[in-house]
Hints:
Blueprint: H1 3-19, E1 22-27, H2 33-43, E2 47-52, H3 54-63, E3 77-82, H4 86-99, E4 104-110, E5 113-116, H5 117-124, H6 129-162, H7 171-180, H8 183-192, H9 195-202
Antiparallel strand pairs: 1-3, 1-4, 2-3, 4-5
Helix pairs in contact: 1-3, 4-5, 6-7, 6-8, 6-9
Amino acid sequence: MARPDKTSAVAELTEDFRTATATVLTEYRGLSVTSMKELRRALGDSTKYSVVKNTLTKIAAKDAGVDLSPDLLVGPSAVAFIKGDPINAAKSLRDFAKENPFLVIKGGIYEGKAITKEELMQLANLESREVLLAKLAGAMKGSLAKAARIFDALRIKMESEQGSPAPVAAAAPVAEAVVEAPAQEVVAVAEEVTPEVVAEEVTPTEEKE
């Protein structure tokens, strides 16, 4: 490879290391061109899977400030530069390797630290961010729906004691709004609305003697 080409290749790899949320090094020896295309499709657009030269990868990692173990640069190497959710990418690599034993996962970098193949597999077994947010939304819906029932019961009690309609609680619409809100807003609501806060809001004050 000519020097200008090497310089360009190193610069591109350095940028990939710097911008990746996680990096996984693999050995692809034995995989067909078709299998490589299938792997890239499985990883999706948020992950760049590239066949690399070990010497250039070593230089690029150093330039990017990434501490890459020499053991990861043994044999023909291909690197998955993950720009999206590392858990989803780890799952894709794990599942593909099960069906294609020629793909050997060596290890990689996650959150700036070196991880082994075993640690990467543990990451693959975790639930993704999307799944966790969906569960949070479901829990929020259940909690707010319960709060709405409490508010409604309190309203009926106040009406019977005062003989006039009490203000209708707005908790039920809020419960529906949380489920339809974007994931970021669900997290924000979760931080503000806790069981303690709900309990404090709905506990009737003691009647004066």
